[in-house]
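Whiteboard transcription, Tuesday session. T.W. wrote the C-alpha cells on the left side:
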C-alpha cells in the first residue's frame, strides 16, 4: 500500500475496530474478506446492551475456524465479567493489592 510514495504501517498481528452502532445495520464487516496486512486477524466488535457482536476478518494465512476463536474470546470475556463482579462486591481494595502498592512506594523512596 502506498500513499504519496510512503508505505503505510499497519498493525502486523491483530487489528481491532469498533464500528459505530446503527440500528438499521444488522451486520458489520464483509463476509469472506481476508486482510493481507495482518498476520492473524482483524476483529470488528460492537457492545450492545444485551449482546456483544464479533466479526472476524482473517489474515491470508489464518486457518483457525471463527467459532473456535469466538469461543476462546467468550471464555475470557466471562472471566473478566466474573472478576469485575467480584471487585464490585468488595467495599475496598484487597489487602494484597494495598501491600504491593506500599512495597512499590517504599522501594522507590
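and on the right, the sequence the group agreed on:
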Amino acid at each position: 500500500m502506498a500513499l504519496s510514495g510512503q508505505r503505510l504501517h499497519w498493525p502486523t498481528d491483530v487489528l481491532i475496530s469498533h464500528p459505530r452502532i446503527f440500528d438499521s445495520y444488522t451486520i458489520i464487516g464483509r463476509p469472506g474478506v481476508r486482510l493481507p496486512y495482518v498476520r492473524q486477524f482483524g476483529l470488528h466488535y460492537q457492545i450492545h446492551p444485551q449482546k456483544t457482536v464479533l466479526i472476524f476478518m482473517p489474515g491470508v494465512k489464518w486457518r483457525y475456524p471463527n467459532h473456535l476463536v469466538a469461543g476462546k474470546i467468550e471464555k475470557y470475556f466471562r472471566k473478566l465479567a466474573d472478576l469485575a463482579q467480584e471487585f464490585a462486591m468488595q467495599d475496598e481494595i484487597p489487602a494484597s493489592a494495598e501491600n504491593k502498592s506500599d512495597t512499590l512506594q517504599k522501594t522507590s523512596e
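Someone added at the bottom: The chain is about 35% helix and 20% strand.
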